[in-house]
């Protein structure tokens, strides 16, 4: 499963950053067009975190909605689909937001 691999990668990254401390919360930005289902990612995260420094850690998923800029007229507008077109008729869009898949922050327990 796609989301399981992503969850495992995020957990690995957080464990490295934690250096043996327990992780309280991981914030991940998930773009609307990233191809990741937040619910599935959340489920896989809890599963993959078992027995790691992230066992019981909270997963904070921030959904990022789509924003595109038209290559033709430079208008910026919200998009809900990657098949969107500009009001001017152009189809060549640059996606400024919506494809994110980032581990944004990792919060550790300060003391044991
Ligand atoms: Zn345009």
Automatic annotation (TrEMBL):
Ni(2+) binds at residue 2. Keywords: Metal-binding, Nickel, Zinc. GO terms for biological process: protein maturation. Pfam families: HypA (PF01155). InterPro entries: Hydgase_Ni_incorp_HypA/HybF_CS (IPR020538), HypA/HybF (IPR000688). GO terms for molecular function: nickel cation binding; zinc ion binding. Gene3D superfamilies: 3.30.2320.80. Zn(2+) binds at residues 70, 73, 86, 88. The keyword Metal-binding applies. Belongs to the HypA/HybF family. Involved in the maturation of [NiFe] hydrogenases. Required for nickel insertion into the metal center of the hydrogenase. This is Hydrogenase maturation factor HypA. The gene is hypA.
């Amino acid at each position: 499963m796609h989301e399981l691999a992503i969850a495992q990668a995020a957990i690995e990254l957080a464990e490295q950053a934690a250096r043996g401390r327990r992780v309280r919360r991981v914030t991940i930005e998930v773009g609307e067009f990233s191809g990741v289902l937040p619910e599935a990612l959340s489920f896989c995260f809890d599963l993959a975190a078992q027995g790691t420094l992230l066992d019981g850690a909270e997963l904070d998923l921030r959904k990022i909605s789509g924003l595109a800029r038209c290559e033709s007229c430079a208008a910026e507008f919200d998009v809900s689909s990657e098949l969107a077109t500009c009001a001017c008729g152009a189809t060549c869009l640059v996606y400024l937001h919506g494809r994110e898949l980032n581990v944004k922050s990792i919060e550790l327990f300060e003391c044991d």
